[in-house]
Amino acid sequence: MDVERTYRVFISSTFNDLTEARKAVVAGVSFCRHVPVALDTYGPEDAADLDVISRETKKSHIYILILGYRYGSIPAGSDKSYTEIEFRHAEEARKPILVFALSWPEILKQRKIKELDAVEQDNQTKLHKFHSYITKGDHFYKPFELGKEDILEKYVIHRLSTIPSEANPPKGLVEEIDNPDEQIAVGAARNMFLSPIIKSIVGFEKL
């Protein structure tokens, strides 16, 4: 009997500027019957708490980064944005990583036409360094374009469908079950895990 796994998938990005991209990624994760974890659905204090970020990143089985034209907020006492901190946690924990990013020329174009505050403007060098790092390496990476974010759903579905068949895949939330009664219980649990997904998708409209 094959092992059927449900994964917690941590979705990391800046928020208001990447609403459509986040919707597409959540749709891909939910299509594969996994559980999207996004800190924008938490309270403001928890979403900004580095201990919460570390815990939720480590509890998740797969990490997805969406990088747009903003570097994002930097917590007090750090030289990295929340988004980069989340990525580094996932990298250190050796999570499977999926990266979707705008091209650097597109980032520069968007930064010229968008209204950015002085702090964000000053962080362009940090953004460039982070972009150069995450678009290389062994992890899964695909570029995307603003206005064509729907392709991200297909990329996510394709990648998530291959992970369980790889050598030493994440164990996930559901392990192999021989007892039919236990299988019924797992089905009920799966529905419980999926219930926040719709709320997350609806919530993105309000960001």
Characterise the protein shown here.
The protein is α/β, with parallel strands linked by helices and 207 residues long. The protein has one domain (8-204): Toll/interleukin-1 receptor homology (TIR) domain (Rossmann fold), CATH 3.40.50. Helix content is 49%, strand content 11%. The chain contains nine helices and five strands; from the N terminus they run E-H-E-H-H-E-H-E-H-H-H-E-H-H. The protein has helices spanning 19-31, 44-47, 50-59, 82-92, 104-113, 118-122, 124-134, 151-162, 180-204; strands at 8-12, 35-37, 62-67, 97-101, 140-143. The protein has a five-stranded parallel sheet with strand order 2-1-3-4-5, sandwiched between helices. Helix 1 runs parallel beside helix 8. It is globular and about 50 Å long. The N and C termini lie far apart (43 Å). 31% of the residues are buried. Mean pLDDT is 85; it is low at 182-207.
| N-to-C span | 43 Å
The side-by-side strand order for the widest beta sheet comes to 2-1-3-4-5
Helix content: 40-55%
Helices and strands: which structural class? alpha/beta
What is the average of the pLDDT values? 85
Q: pLDDT below 50 for ≥5 consecutive residues: which ranges?
A: 182-207
Q: Any idea of the CATH class?
A: Alpha Beta
CATH topology: Rossmann fold
How many whole angstroms does the radius of gyration measure? 17 Å
Shape: globular
How many DSSP E strands? Answer: 5
Sheet bearing the most strands, described?
A: 5 strands, parallel
Domain module tally: 1
Percent of residues in β-strands: 5-15%
CATH superfamily: Toll/interleukin-1 receptor homology (TIR) domain
- Count every helix, treating DSSP H or I runs of 4 or more residues as helices: 9
CATH architecture: 3-Layer(aba) Sandwich
Q: What is the H/E string?
A: EHEHHEHEHHHEHH
